[in-house]
Amino acid sequence: AQKVTQAQTEISVVEKEDVTLDCVYETRDTTYYLFWYKQPPSGELVFLIRRNSFDEQNEISGRYSWNFQKSTSSFNFTITASQVVDSAVYFCALSVGSNYQLIWGAGTKLIIKP
Amino acid sequence: DSGVTQTPKHLITATGQRVTLRCSPRSGDLSVYWYQQSLDQGLQFLIQYYNGEERAKGNILERFSAQQFPDLHSELNLSSLELGDSALYFCASSAGQVPTDTQYFGPGTRLTVL
């Protein structure tokens, strides 16, 4: 069975702090894809990144970075120098070929205080 | 802007009524997915269509139905509405038929059943 765990229900930090959102996944498939989505207060779901299981290189996009570690089945997301606009719910999701649907984590609500 | 459009943005109706939610996928995408997001259950996959054919079914109630038309737009029909159907309904689209493709989400339709 596949599963995604986002153990942090809510994180609150002060602006300009760095923050890491954890994502731990479970699957027995050797080929799978991991995703992060952002849901700001306005409600839309915004795609952030897609990573396949054969690419363990870390990804950096501006203030966002992702650390993929197969050894610990984790795909963590770090925001550097956080800003108020980063306040949102962030979802991690897993996709495997043997399952017809995305498996979603419960989401982490990130609050950035000015 | 993901390129996925959904109408209407908000919908308020009464119990027992029927509503239709509409989705237009991104240009070139053949798959359409429907999700329900309620406060207590997170993101729930409802159904997927690929090029007009039903591809996968999730936790969709029998009172709910969907279809994808030849022009690839999709409609989700919700009937005999109950208070518990109040939720944010998302449509997503992707290029292919497998869930490992990136899904791009529309802005959602917020349904309130009174």
Can you summarize the main beta sheet of chain B? 7 strands, mixed
Distance between the first and last residues' Cα of chain B: 31 Å
Overall pLDDT of chain B: 94
End-to-end gap of chain A: 41 Å
Query: What integer is the average pLDDT of chain A?
Result: 94
User: Any idea what the radius of gyration of chain A is?
Assistant: 14 Å
Q: Roughly what percent helix of chain A? A: under 10%
The stretches of 5 or more residues of chain A where confidence is low (pLDDT under 50) are none
For the largest beta-sheet of chain A, the strand count, sense and barrel status come to: 6 strands, mixed
Largest interface: A-B, 22 and 22 residues
Catalogue the unreliable spans of chain B.
Answer: none
Number of E-state strands of chain B: 11
Q: SS-based structural class of chain A? A: mainly beta
Tell the overall outline of chain A.
globular
Which class do the helix and strand fractions of chain B yield? Answer: mainly beta
- Percentage beta strand of chain A: over 45%
Structural account:
The complex is a heterodimer of chains A (114) and B (114). With 114 residues, chain A is mainly β. Chain A is globular and about 45 Å long. In chain A, the strands form three sheets. In chain A, strands 2, 5, 6, 10, 11 and 12 form a six-stranded mixed β-sheet that branches. The termini of chain A are far apart. Chain A has strands spanning 3-5, 10-14, 19-21, 24-26, 32-39, 46-52, 59-61, 64-69, 74-79, 88-96, 103-104, 108-113. The mean pLDDT of chain A is 94. Chain B has 114 residues and is mainly beta. In chain B, 0% of the residues lie in helices and 53% in strands. Chain B contains no helices and eleven strands. Chain B has strands spanning 5-7, 10-13, 19-24, 31-38, 42-50, 53-57, 64-68, 74-78, 87-94, 104-105, 109-113. The radius of gyration of chain B is 13 Å and the shape is globular. In chain B, 36% of the residues are buried. The model of chain B has no long low-confidence stretch (mean pLDDT 94).
